[in-house]
# Entry
Amino acid sequence: MAKYDVDEVKLRQLEEYIDSLEQKEGALIGVLYKAQEIFGYLPKDVQLFIARKLGITAAKVYGVATFYSYFTMEPRGKHVINVCMGTACFVKGADKILEEIKKELDIKEGNMSKDGLFTVDTLRCVGACGLAPVVMVDGKVYGRVKIEDVKGILDEYRE
Amino acid sequence: MIKSIEELKQIRDKYKDVLQNREAEENKIRILVGMATCGIAAGARDTINAIVDEVHKENINNAVVVQTGCMGFCYAEPTVEVRFPGKSPVLYGKVDAERGREIVRRHVKKGEVISEWVLKG
Amino acid sequence: MPLRMELLVCGGTGCQASNSNKVLEVLRQGIKEANLQDEVRVLMTGCFGFCEKGPIVKVMPDNIFYVEVDEESARKIVAEHVIKGRIVEEKIYKEPKTEERLPEQSSIPFYKKQIRIALRNCGKIDPENINEYIAADGYMALARVLTEMTPEEVIDIVKRSGLRGRGGGGFPTGLKWEATRKSKGDVKYVICNADEGDPGAFMDRSILEGDPH
Amino acid sequence: MVNITINDIKLQVPEGTTILQAAKMVNINIPTLCHLDLHDIKMVNRTASCRVCLVEIEGRRNLAPACATECFEGMIIRTNTKRAIRARRTMVELLLSDHPTDCLVCEKNGNCDLQKLAADLGIRKIRFEGEKSTYTKDSSSGALYRNPDKCIMCRRCETMCNEVQTCGIYSAVDRGFETVVSPAFNLPMIDTQCTFCGQCVSVCPTAALTEVSYVSKVWEALHDPDKYVIAQTAPAIRVALGEEFGLEPGTIVTGKMVAALRRLGFKKVFDTDFAADVTIVEEAKEFIDRLNGKGRLPILTSCCPSWVKFIEHQFPELLDIPSTCKSPHMMFGAIAKTYFAEKFNIPPEKIVVVSVMPCIAKKYEIQRKEFEEDGIKNVDYVITTREFAKMIREAGLDFTKLPDEDFDDPLGESTGASVIFGVTGGVIEAALRTAYEWITGETLEKVEFHGVRGLEDGLKEATVKIKDMELKIGVAHGLGNARRLLEDIRDGKRFYHAIEIMACPGGCIDGGGQPYHHGNLDIVRARLNAIYEEDRNKPIRKSHENPAVIAMYKEYMGEIGGEKAHHLLHTHYTPRERI
Amino acid sequence: MAIAGYAIGAQFGYIYVRAEYPLAIHRLRIAINQARDLGLLGKNILGTNFSFDVEIKIGAGAFICGEETALINSIEGGRGEPTVKPPYPAQVGLWKKPTNINNVETFANVPPIILNGADWFSSIGTEKSKGTKVFALAGKVNNVGLVEVPMGITLREIIYDLGGGIKGDKKFKAVQTGGPSGGCIPADHLDTPIDYDTLNALGSMMGSGGMIVMDEDDCMVNIAKFYLEFSCDESCGRCTACRVGNKRMLEILNKITEGKGEMEDLEMLKELAETIKDSSLCGLGQTSPNPVLSTMKFFYDEYLAHVKDKSCPAGVCTELLKYYIIPEKCVGCTACAKVCPVNVIHGEPRKVHVYKRQDV
# Structure
């Protein structure tokens, strides 16, 4: 049996999920989704495991994982900050909010802060355009965010 | 399991009145119950519940029961007003639960004004 | 005992984001404290569409449309409107130009010119309760189709209605169905495309959230 | 049949005909780039991604790709309208705007489809400027060179690798401008399950995929007075090399090839065919042993290093079925540095063995640790047919005017049986010729086994009657076909006594190191015919009758399948991970 | 969906939902389970011999998957790259079987049509576009939200009557419809009755019904750039036109917004946009130049301002902003110089400061 350099308990959890699937054909995206839920991101060995388990090539898994913006191969911070960059948010200054967050955390888009607490990313429209600009932290939506609100929002998660 | 269109219709009819309150139609009969402090003190809650219940029992689906504030007839609480679309409203005084049911049965359903309870302002 | 009043709280993502969950909780708590839980029900519906003014609470059958409800005003709605029948004026939509308070949804200009077909059940039914959907004639169309119509008749009616795809291209839906019907194959599929990716468009999500059936 | 009009020419075409095919019927050439139709080996690349073949169709809003659009009744097509030409030129310019312009020093200079297209369209200026993609180049395998900067996203390699060869090394990765074809996790190729068959190289229109070149190393060795550089040539070279010098495909240039090698400075010019005959006697012996219950059946030929790597990754549970014989050119290396070295009294460490091969995987094969003797590699360098042709040109030899010369002795002697190693079915046919005679003790009159020949079927089956035995023979070429065959064997669905597998469709004649055929498989067919012609021309057509081989066993190797032979001529296999 | 299944002869359906919509997925799951429990999905629906079931497939963030063939590839578990049409999904679709794809709103329109009849539905809307359309009204408009209006309503009615006009009483500049593939429609066309065909004629499209209102503070070149950035990000990378073409267009737009654009860039931009529209493999690529083409058509003067005058009329493109110090008003407090991140303000305390950039 091949060795995988990842948490074994989590790997078993993933294996159980894959085994529970009735249909393996076409299941790749769902499995990657689950894997990211379990591991927080998609390390190489997890992708390799999925490939072998589903009987598809590692290249295909990698091709798919890199295609969809939802999947990430970088470890994620404890909290994921998503700044909505939909048009409505953009015209209301979401880019400036993003800049502020990046400045405050001293990181780049898509990266994790040094303390491992935050990852900053953008997404295209959470569908709360009425509240633009919108920032989402771990699924919680903050609407009508102003630059001066940024620090306060981050502080909520800093305890 | 629903096995036929008839069963589906039954479920629909069973739950139809759940949605009834949510249809905001202008041409419904409105039964307004005064629910201000004075009304409640005089037992308006029993009245309104009785009216709602009676409307339901009698299968009346062209009427809504709405609570309203003080109508200024504190001496005659609980007060109930019945408004048929396009007609002038009729105001009843001292409507207890039983009178409420009666109003539903006679006025709302049959259109017969119970003149002896009508408040004359 | 039949209910005499219902408070419909918008549960679309927009309103949830502006705390409509909390509003729902406060309303429920208030009703319970007043011991009215048998007469008055609070439920969460799909999106009302008027996200600008969320969270939205609609009181039925009084047909009063409250906007921008926060926890405090939720308490007030219970104390004043639910218990005493007094409308909480300051939370009623105010037309900015005329300064006029418009308590009924249908009189608000935002809704005035709308004809809601696809959104017909949004903000009306509890999206997590299939019975309410059925009560709103849900699945009746399916039932009629299955029992009274041939596939060809269904395609014909869709064709004659002139319905065109709402996803982008605007291809006539009936023709599309007909093409798929005519294609040979023992197995065929129907896909519902809810991959709404446009920045700034969220109607599909609202339909799914508000009327998932 | 449907009626269509192309550029005012009316014609009738069968249903399902693409615009591109229809245009060809009336001699209208529509330029293509990503399109590739290798129908005979079931590889059709229809990604329609390059957008170079766009044409105008009356009634259609936008332009249509001719390669992937089928004709319909009444279709009116115009291939050269202003719109179509503008789009075509713009597409090429866009491709060039994200492509290195180092044509002069590019591996594919003169052989590049994009370069030719730009020339044909007369592009003189690339109007668009901007960011150019830069990726890590990879030569980790020593066999295959990846330069993704030159990738134009035609996806031919993906189609070839995933659908025909079923190795699945490549996938498009990322999206938007960053999209590139890459192996999983962007690993160096050596860490993947790539078999280095080089079929991706064969179909790559640019220099995104090429071989790792050893030309300069070989020159260096040739110019080193301390080295004794000898050459061996695979059977498939002599029927393809001529193409590089303008000769008709299928021209046999054995004599000129030998002359060229000698003029390049090789001390001895030997023939891999000699070693192929050795392979046959060793393999036939092993086969007969297995038929007699010593070992597992079927026996699998092991001449193809790409195929060997394939089974190591994909079917590690079947590693006891391939023959333990080394591939012919590895046997040659081992023989050259022992038997030949002793016989001519040359220190083995001075001998440099250069293999001229139609193959890229051989470049990888010589690096395998098991092919070393006391730290001395069996074979030192592998160059492809293409690299060899480059050396001939560099040396200023007028190839077509060279005289015909003979191979050197003793490792230049060969039979018809070894020549056919170059085509699919050839190894097994050669083995059968020997096995038949050894088993029956009778002379085989009809030496040709037509049941195992041919390009068209990816999987061939034949039953050969030897004495009272009915031997079931399986032949697969192309790794996808090999996979099907092996799955059936693993699952017990089929039984064979012997199997031949070649990684490349058609066998070595269509190897990854052969002159580019640019999608014309008639060229490959011509090579195939030439191989069989060469076989027919040989006075001796059975390996075990090769006098030089007999002499070697007598003088040096001892018994066929004996201890010394086993030590020098056989190998073993290692299970490998799938990635 | 089940109705469509019946009509075309399918027994299985997929609902492809974005992963970003957790609430929708949650509610869909409930709805599907309830319907299954009641026998409204599954085998022998309502006692008939029609069977139909659905499964939810979660997308993973790729705009392109709205395109039918890309969506099919995605459901099959692959990269969401579109493939050449024809064959259309109706002929060769999911798992190579005939497949019908409609979006949510389309399906939502079907039951009322069945119940109320084709005539009822076709009585709403315009000659060629029947029924209603849901628009997501957003941007610089007072009432942001979801509106369902009959086809043929004018943009003015939506923006001013339903939308309550422009925020802060600013001047309306344009409305962008149809998402990143649509175009921008200027004030002159506010009274156009909207349906599929009029929007197409204006170089925009109905799309899925996004409607973003822009006011005088929005720079149309920047808006075009924004949409193009989106298209570049979301391009699947398969075909040359979209993969490289859009990137080159974006680079030209960047040049323009940075004040480095020249007149020939504008010509090249237009030509490139038209060619990409003509040459791309899928709908996304074919429509991605729309924002550029429509803004060039209706707001060419803004492009000219960027290129010729090196100025951004809306004051959005920061590279083109010009700062002045009004000497009469400067008291030399040094506050501006202290905070300037690029040190372009010079001067002594209590003396008039000067603004001086190294590069100008």
Remarks:
- The mean pLDDT of chain E is 86.
- Chain E touches chain B through six residues (CB under 8 Å).
- Residues 323-360 of chain E form one domain.
- Chain E has four domains: 2-110, 132-215, 220-318, 323-360.
